Amino acid sequence: QVQLVESGGGLVQAGGSLRLSCAASGTIFSVSDMAWYRQAPGKQREFVAYVTSGGTRNYGDSVKGRFTISRDNAKNIAFLQMNNLKPEDTAVYYCNVNGLSTTLPRAFDVWGQGTLVTVSS
């Protein structure tokens, strides 16, 4: 099985920064895409950013220019650097990773437990 552990959430003032981490472990053969989503209270889950194994990145419109996604392929860790945070960035942030496992079924697509980010005005 593949597990994700997220960390780095917390309380920050508007204009501040946070860095989230998502570490994948378990029966991993290879990791393809690593992504972040978020869900604010009373709202649907929203795409934030993804990075492919080849380094291609994409961002949601609301975070472009402020957030940066990166990954450490050797350690299967994804990072989300969040700068110039706004109160509307307040949400639970979830990591999503897909790839191939060393065990059957080969393909996996897993979610983390979420980490809360609160931005005060």
Provide a short characterization of the protein structure.
The protein is mostly beta strands. The chain contains no helices and eleven strands.
In percent terms, what proportion of residues is strand?
over 45%
How many helices in DSSP terms?
0
Extended strand count: 11
Radius of gyration: 14 Å
User: What is the 3D shape?
Assistant: elongated
Question: Level of helix content?
Answer: under 10%
User: Which regions have little confidence, pLDDT < 50, spanning 5+ residues?
Assistant: none
Q: Alpha-carbon distance between the termini?
A: 41 Å
The largest sheet is:
7 strands, mixed
Structural class: mainly beta
Order of helices and strands: EEEEEEEEEEE
Can you give the mean pLDDT? 96
Walkthrough of the structure:
It is a single chain. This protein is mostly beta strands and 121 residues long. The protein starts with a strand and ends with a strand. The protein has no helices and 11 strands. Strands 2, 4, 5, 6, 9, 10 and 11 form a 7-stranded mixed sheet that branches.
